[in-house]
């Protein structure tokens, strides 16, 4: 699926992969986020994704002309998860809305793990 809008001049279509890349890059740039995560179906263990696969930790859907984003992240040990989640939600919402011009409905943060150095 993709986000689409039409006017008298034509149509604009933005793929979910592009939105996922914007959201993933914004989330990983937030303080305390180690990276994006994905759970394997076999053993339910979350693994840290490299930059090339950043979109696998992001799920994008559309509902009523709004974009909903689910982020799966790994955070640094000792960081307040509630505060970091609020910061990520705010940053991702602003980044996606300002880059695409579409409204963001919900941003859901799923903390899949904590990295201890």
List the helices and strands and how they pair.
Elements: E1 2-7, E2 10-15, H1 16-28, E3 33-39, E4 46-48, E5 58-63, E6 66-76, H2 81-100, E7 104-115
Parallel strand pairs: 6-7
Antiparallel strand pairs: 1-2, 3-4, 3-6, 5-6
What does this structure look like?
With 117 residues, the chain is of the alpha+beta class. It is 28% helix and 44% strand. The strands form two sheets. Strands 3, 4, 5, 6 and 7 form a five-stranded mixed β-sheet that branches. It has a two-stranded antiparallel ribbon with strand order 1-2. α1 crosses α2. The longest helix is centred in the C-terminal third of the chain and has 20 residues, at 81-100. It is elongated. The chain starts with a strand and ends with a strand. The mean pLDDT is 85.
Write the H/E string, N to C.
EEHEEEEHE
Decide which structural class fits the backbone. Answer: alpha+beta
Between the first and last Cα atoms, what is the distance in angstroms? 39 Å
Shape: elongated
Number of strands: 7
Main sheet overview: 5 strands, mixed
- What is the tally of helical segments? 2
Percent of residues in beta strands: 35-45%
Q: Which regions contain 5 or more consecutive residues with pLDDT less than 50?
A: none
Average pLDDT value? 85
Helix fraction bin: 25-40%
Radius of gyration, taken over Cα atoms and rounded to an integer in Å: 15 Å
